[in-house]
Structures
1.
Amino acid sequence: MSGGGPSQAYRGRFAPSPTGALHAGSLVAALASWLDARAHGGRWLLRIEDVDQPRCVPGADQLILQQLAACGLHSDEPVLWQSRRHAAYQQALDRLVAAGLAYPCACSRKDIAAAQAALGQTRQRHSAAVYPGTCRAGLHGRPARAWRLRTDGVPPVQWTDRRLGPQQQDVAAEVGDFVLKRADGLWAYQLAVVVDDADQGISDVVRGEDLADNTPRQILLQRALGLAQPRYLHTPLVFGSNGEKLSKQNGAQPLDLADPLAALNAAAAMLDLPPQPSPLDKALAAWVGAWRARWAAAAAR
Ligand code: GLU
């Protein structure tokens, strides 16, 4: 339907981090991923991304599942929790290390800043320094803290987002060798998401646009691990009255479970879908029809 993508059966997912309840912004990604799966006659999976345990809020996973259920969005397969997937992530890291594509790093933030200053670099990305590659040449007796993927010599990554169109990022220059396993022993989002998307056979990633600039790193990891590359569709973000993107960090209100259809209608409006009256199941079915027609038209162009 969206043309040119993987030929395997459609498998989509919604992968919230349980750092709080779903809000109006996260429902847009949830609804879009569900609609896209339904419109393609595919399956929709839920994955709880609780690798960053210190940021997780106890009970938020169950609350998110309840919120989605109240909106009529149910996982077609058992829910996957990333906190139970340590062995799979370790295996992927071991493979990358054996292939010479990942290496241990002993640098602290201070070390990285000092190495950058020595190189005359001040460039910062998301306030994290672009790693200058110090430990590619070995640890020289220092203890390993984190593990990183090599990006040196890798050409810019080009990919096409179904909504945003052609994209490009020079990961080596703009991000540098990025972390796969953190100094605190926790798995990095990039590695966990790539391993899980592959193990769950995800053909289509539909998620918020704030995550779009992670995609090139994930594509590099897919290539390094010899995994299939899913199609990507990044959905519009919702901004609060203060002009900031809605997020749990800036206090977005949890979805009101008393009126899930109102919440869904607000999410649908963000996706340029027309408002629907109750009942909920008819509203969802109408949006599936509209979504299917939209992407069929896009594929025919
Ligand atoms: N867990 C991420 C989040 O809640 C989403 C990851 C993804 O969809 O790739 O922001």
2.
Amino acid sequence: MIYSKSADLFERAQRSIPGGVNSPVRAFRSVGGKPLFMARGEGAHLIDADSNRFIDYICSWGPLLLGHRCPAVLAAIQEALEIGTSFGAPTEREVELAEAIRAAVPSVEMVRLVNSGTEATMAALRVARGFTGRELTIKFEGCYHGHVDSLLVKAGSGMATLGIADTQGVPQGFAATTIALPFNSIEAVEQAFRTHGDRIAAVIVEPVVGNMGCVLPKAGFLEALRELTARHGAVLIFDEVMTGFRLARGGAQELYGIRPDLTTLGKVVGGGLPLAAYGGRADIMQKVAPVGPVYQAGTLSGNPIAVSAGLAMLRQIEAHPEIYATLERLGAAVTAEVPPGVTVNRAGSMFTFFFTPAPVTDWDSAKKADTARFGVFFRAMLERGVYLPPSQFEAAFLSAAHTDQDIQATVAAARDSFALALAA
Ligand code: HOZ
């Protein structure tokens, strides 16, 4: 394939934007080559600036559960444009979206709309601290909760991709409020509660991790988090920015039957526009200003265009519950053929091919993956028209717009690409 227009745009971008990108993983640094600049999306496909067509497994890093330019979402955006782009005042649609979120995720008794997943986790943590009067947070190594200062400790996603252990610019005092433990280790959480129990405000977890690649919770892990937090008076926060409305309409908490105290949502809930949310138990959410003393605000929060897109997305999901069976079937098919030397992890429409023969259950096992081989695989897939996340440590996403034909083409491309990567 020829990527000359993307290459030119990348040269130009680097003169004005750090690294030429507005989010680090997009720079392709860990897989080699240069990022593609996109011109257009169509269902499950992306067309780049050089008119190359790809089957898209990033789906905007998760939001596009129904594919690019879903007609119902586009129609809602068009309609919203007729009334104005921003009011900085409440609208009826915000109430409808809040009600739609509550209907889908019953643990969310009250909800506040924000603009990004980072804002949602930052606010949820602040509310948990305000509610408990405590300061410490438990997070898990390889989990990523946005670029919140105190949570950029042993974080996944771009930090894992770029090998940045601890980012500069975070005051030591902020990082010291975070205890990072191995994902899936109940013993480590028990030990932390034994040592610091009455100082722990919250445990925050991606119930199915997407940010060290896709990693599933072991049986009993989420249940143990629920039990330990309840016993010690700490707030359990499920970061469902990736999994919310994706693994089930009610997210991972519906799938695993756990009711967290607070939930953060992003990506799908905004229908592809910048919108996120945090919510949960009414007694905790009543701490949020103006009702309570925990401050959180935003000029564009509840933006009418984003709210309309999110509402249209949630209504489509409600009207088409069969999409989850479709996504499960497509997910099983796209990951069915994996050669020895590669481990595949999948939860519904999220998956990762890890270039390691051993099971991947936490960050220690994820980082054993051979990232050089992943780079060869990634580039070979790209040449064959398949656009995967450009990092061993990001989950791939399917949409309901992917067809059986897309999956067959992907499996055929993967057969060749696995062979090339494993021979490298
Ligand atoms: N950190 C995001 C996914 N884990 C990537 C966001 C982006 O580059 O758009």
